[in-house]
Amino acid sequence: MIVPDGGPLYLRVKDVIVKRIVDEVWRPGGLLPSEQKLAAELGVSPGTVRKALNELTAENLLYRQQGKGTFVASHTPQRSLFHFFKMTAADGKRQPATSRLLACARRRANREEAGRLDLPAQSRVVEIERIRELGGSPQILERILVPAKLFPNLGKSSDGELPNELYVFYEERYGITIYRANENLRAIAATAEQAKLLGLKAGAPLLEIDRTAITLDGRPVEWRVSLCDTRNCHYVSELI
Amino acid sequence: MIVPDGGPLYLRVKDVIVKRIVDEVWRPGGLLPSEQKLAAELGVSPGTVRKALNELTAENLLYRQQGKGTFVASHTPQRSLFHFFKMTAADGKRQPATSRLLACARRRANREEAGRLDLPAQSRVVEIERIRELGGSPQILERILVPAKLFPNLGKSSDGELPNELYVFYEERYGITIYRANENLRAIAATAEQAKLLGLKAGAPLLEIDRTAITLDGRPVEWRVSLCDTRNCHYVSELI
DNA sequence: GAGTGGTCTAGACCACGCT
DNA sequence: GCGTGGTCTAGACCACTCT
Hints:
The structure is a homodimer.
Chain A: H1 9-22, H2 35-42, H3 46-58, E1 62-65, E2 69-72, H4 77-84, E3 87-89, E4 97-108, H5 111-116, E5 124-134, E6 137-147, H6 166-174, E7 178-189, H7 192-198, E8 205-215, E9 220-228, E10 233-239
Antiparallel strand pairs in A: 1-2, 3-10, 4-5, 5-6, 6-9, 7-8, 8-9
Chain A binds a DNA duplex through α3.
């Protein structure tokens, strides 16, 4: 048996599959071998492989299509939008979001930033600042921080254009796929500078979304703080 | 075969089980028949029953204990706390929350309120106002609205005491189990009155959590608006 | 020891996508 | 027509709980 020892067999099969995705044996969007072939290769029964594949599908790591096969999940604009963007307009309509770049530069991380990204002190990072507009008016002020090492040319050449959906871009351009994110939400008062950028008065209430995004192997690769004017939109959370 | 027609068998088995919970054939905390007995009774194979039970377990409707059996999920203080209370202290510690009742009275619903609770216009409702404290200082101002019809004596006699975990109370006292909730989050500025109750200045930013809680059969039974002082705590959301 | 859920196996048949 | 995943079945064995 090729799978490592210890614990239930289907969990070990899961680990093998995850490891192959991490090692880029199978890349996002790519097709996995069929259940039967995987079962034969790993020396387990098809039912065990099926259980592993189904759990990974439930965790949004894979997706399956009857008649076609099993694929590694990847960021399409749709998936990115629905999974990682929880702001919705007050009227429920999903308006096309556009973004305006304010800054994009490389610099050294301070202590807190290095800690958040699990980097050595003083590591180089790329800082992106932008404003996202929903329905024409500025609504979200974002500061994004990523390790420079993982994003080689980002912020060096003056890339005037960055796509609105960054996770699609991370994946296609740098081979970095975001699988999970933790968000902490607060209400804060806008500083004079923030207020000006969003067309508000200083002290106006803003929804602060503090997000750490992590890859499949659990490394944090993005720290993002979004400040939202929630007069015309809100953050949606479903508790089950 | 006892299960109704149409669609995959295991989904029909799920529907049968859900219906029995709704009809209180099996009550929260109660023990279901074993897989084998259920399979025999419904005339399907044990594997099919198992698949249905596992999906319902994943949806937090049931829980299973090896060697003991399968039970209908119920609100314990723990479960209520972990599933439906997403505020965490800034230092990550979960402090015991206490609450102070401001008001609890029956009255007629206005248009918006009736709409939110899916009630006829002018229906009687119970309104609860309270302040929740985390670590000694007031942090959350809550207004809770429930249909008077479903909560017979609530708010009539002056119940000076209401437990901190209302969902446990709803279930034990009125047989109403909350299974899901939708929350919409915003940042707002505190009114003078709100600020006074929370020990803040007027205009201070507050996190507004607008929640609709629904039962297993999909009926909304509680509308709750929580206003949180998020200087020392935050709302946690995990995106997967 | 009896009963429960958890795991693992094996195979049949169906629905779907492609060629 | 072929290969894929989706469903359904049947049974063996293990781990756990309780008496």
